[in-house]
Structure formats: C-alpha cells, structure tokens
Design a protein that fits this description.
alpha/beta; Rossmann fold; 7 strands; disordered N terminus; NAD(P)-bd_dom_sf; Sc_DH/Rdtase_CS
Amino acid sequence: MSMVVEEAELPERAGKPLVDMVGVRLLVIGAGSGIGQAAVALAVAAGADVAGTMLPSVGESGDDVPCDIVLPCDVTSQEEVTEAVESAEIALGGLDAVIVSAGVFEHRGLGETDDADFERILGINLGGAFHAAKAVERIFRRDGTGSLVLFSSQIGLVGHRRATAYAASKAAVNGLTKTLAVEFATFGARVNAVAPGPIETPMTAIARADPERHAGLVAQVPLGRLGAPDEVARAALFLATPAAAFITGHVLVVDGGVTAV
C-alpha cells in the first residue's frame, strides 16, 4: 500500500552554532560526511580551532572536511584513533573537546546478520567510541577538564525492524556514555551522547531514494519532516562547549519527537 505524506519545510537557520566557540580546540572523528562534516563547518564558522578525521578507504578526501587539519583514522583501530587524537592535540596546541560521529548503519534483521556482520558494526559504532575514550582520557585527566561527545541513535532507545547489530551497538553506547561520565567526572571532564532520529545524511540515502520508505520515515516524525545534519551538529557542539558545563552522562535525543510517541 502506498503512503502519501507531505513533508514539512525545513526552517531557515543561521550558519553558526548557538554557542560561542572562539578558542575551543575541537577534534571531530568522522568528519568526512553527514553530521560530522556539518559539525566541523559550524565550529569553524563560530571561531573554533578544528581538526577532523576521515576514512580514505570509503572514498572520502581531504576536501570533504572543511578545516585545515585533516587526519586519516580508522575508528576500529585503537592505534589509529590514539595517533589521530595525539596529532590533533599537537596541531591545535591542546584539546578541549572531541566529538565521535563516525558510524555505520546496515538494514539487517537477526536472520540476515552473521557473526562477522555483528562484530564489524559493533567494532565501528561501539569500538570507535571506546577507542576515542581511551585516547582522550590521558589528555583530559592531565588538564582536569574536557568534553567527549559520542553518537548514539534513537534506535539505541527503542526497537527498530531489521537493525539488530546497529540497535545493539547504539544501546551499548548509551551505557558506555553514562559509565564514562562517572569515571571522567573524577578528573573534571564530561561525557555525553547525541541520539539522532531520521536525518538527511548519506546513512539514510537509500531509504530516502525509495518514495514509500521515505514517506514512512517522515510519517513517524511528529514534526513532519526529516532532520538536517546541522540540527544534530548544533546539539553535539553545545554539549562539547562550556555552555553545557554541568551536563554529563546525558543522552540528548534529536529526533523531531519520534521517541515521544
């Protein structure tokens, strides 16, 4: 049965975050596309000193990352994540915040997911968050401050058909966020996560290209439209800055009201 849903218009937004980022030294892990790319662009526009990482093996190039410092990084490798974090710290003269937006979504149910699929998806989505935390802990502990922002998903909070490994990985990120927040608080640093809903990114491109699937996505959003990458990026940047100085251990849902229904 076909579905016809009229999508609401995207509101006009200024090209900056809603926080002052002058002097903030930020690393965005997974900056080559989507929300990570938007976060870099917004942070640079707001005056932050920014480094970004990308994964060249999936066709990204340095031109995809809108900042001067671009580092290669495979988040499944602790060695590569640590090297990227340390290189960013040197290049920026310190590191105040790290946003980990690298991730992968695959539409696979339980019967379609074998051990290799499960381990690969968790290795990127959960392993990348874990590796980033390990890499930044030394710096934040030494400095007695810092903000780590991880990426969860609305699907980490509610069920979703045919997203077995993805849902598991994002639910695990929620638990990791809260545990790390307690640990990092002992030396004055913060850990939070952002949980996007349906967003117009490369991750949702296949679904959006199918008119019926696109209509189904829009129909589940109370605000009547899909989100834009910059709308999620603004939430992540807020958590990364001193504007959120008393917020830690929180999973901020940015889903247009999907999980409220």
